């Protein structure tokens, strides 16, 4: 059919009109016929069977019955009135009841004419009744499209108030199918349809709205979910492959003196197999003549910094500079100190550039950067400023990349004539399904093992009633020379929330751990940066044994001597946050502990989070549970939500379909990157790029 018909404004569909059109636009984003056809049901009610009144059971389920109304009466009740109709068939009688809209209903009901009624059946005072049934004359029911599985569409309070009920939505979609005659353009190639035994696009759209049975519904759902995920994967993979073909990268073809010297003389421990594998993947990218665009993910403490440093040394050995950008001054500082310490005196000039760096020092950094004396620049957003000009930037590393917007990262591209190689790192493990959907255009490397000698952190859940025992445990650990974090969710008391807050907690800790025997640091987001740094420095140097803090230490100082993490009101934190906080300990050779403190009242989700934390240290397992609890949008933040604005597929439940879609997209593009041999897919893909949303064109 002519696809332009589907771009017809919804106001012109019979049964809509200006008022309904305005409501559909504001509430559901339905502007055109196209948008309405792609309003997919949330669930279905089985209407494959007509029940007899004599067969009814006391199950409170939704059913449909054919019968007649033989009389109508108004019944007075304590508050207001109710309208009651006697409804009969050849096996018995029941009541239909209305508590509102009675005048209009009474005027429109027809006696002794067959109706099909649908609704929930109740048993009351020895009689079956159906409150506010859906009703349709048998004559109209016979003429209309047979909807055996009743679709239930997304709705809002405003839609209901404006009279756009589920039944009205259904009627509008029926009208749309009648106007278009159900002819919808095919968007997948015959080969793909045949190989996967898919039903046609037209059949799929019809059966998603008007399925005759469960089997046809399942086929329609699979077809449309596959298609949605297939085109998203096609877009991501195509972008990646085209990127490698079109965007040249600097060729780092040699492994030079600095890399070898560091590897042989300065590496503090043997690299894990995972680290070796990742470095090999990165080296292959750097020598491919294409720009590297790689995501490096690894759990807290898995050794991403060593991999980043060795990659920077490869750049320097090949005559280039490198930069590392972190989201906070604390993290940038930590990277700077850690990398300087690792490099020792092998002749690599490294500098730190953040908002706190004084003007005189900043001037020197700019000069050395431009004349090439400075090899590695580590810093925050300050690295993106226009006045930060490099002599020859060949590698840009972005840490905790989800905290930076796409536009910010893109600024790094323009810091040299040919874009530098890009390595983005994250300590937030991303489930494979999510990574395939969000970062399908990046190559992904994963460090999935911890360095040798690291003992798994022991995690326990304790209730507030066990606090005295927990305090005794803290004393015992401090006696051994260890340090302790105590983290709170709030800075000041919130009347609405009955949770421990930081200041109250600090006073409690100070009472139980008095000076001069114990020294306590306190850190929170409302402190001045200088005060915060001073308190953190005291803890890093071991001058204080206890650090009372909010989540500002989630990414921050690396204190190998800190072996205990107490998280107060742990039920208030998300899983990934709990896991990140736990990762602040366990960085030395000693056994470390994480104690999750809560009250006794816990929601089901809170219990699941706590059990998961106690049960595993594996960040990827934790991320999978987090994805199921919170959903992809919440997990990734707003800047990625557009990628996952899925109409019908669910990347958690439809994991297998996603894998199938990715496999076929990859296979097709590897054989035919321009899609010339797949004209149907090429046409659909061209429209996708044009409209930025597959459901804008796919019908």
UniProtKB/TrEMBL annotation:
Q: Which stretches make up the Helicase ATP-binding domain? A: 285-447
Q: Which Pfam families match?
A: DEAD, Helicase_C, RecG_dom3_C, RecG_wedge
What top-tier enzyme class does this entry carry?
isomerase
Gene3D superfamilies, from UniProt? Nucleic acid-binding proteins, P-loop containing nucleotide triphosphate hydrolases
EC id? 5.6.2.4
Molecular-function annotations in GO: helicase activity
Query: What does the record give as the function of this protein?
Result: Plays a critical role in recombination and DNA repair. Helps process Holliday junction intermediates to mature products by catalyzing branch migration. Has replication fork regression activity, unwinds stalled or blocked replication forks to make a HJ that can be resolved. Has a DNA unwinding activity characteristic of a DNA helicase with 3'-5' polarity.
- This chain's protein is named ATP-dependent DNA helicase RecG
Native source organism of the sequence: Arenibacter algicola
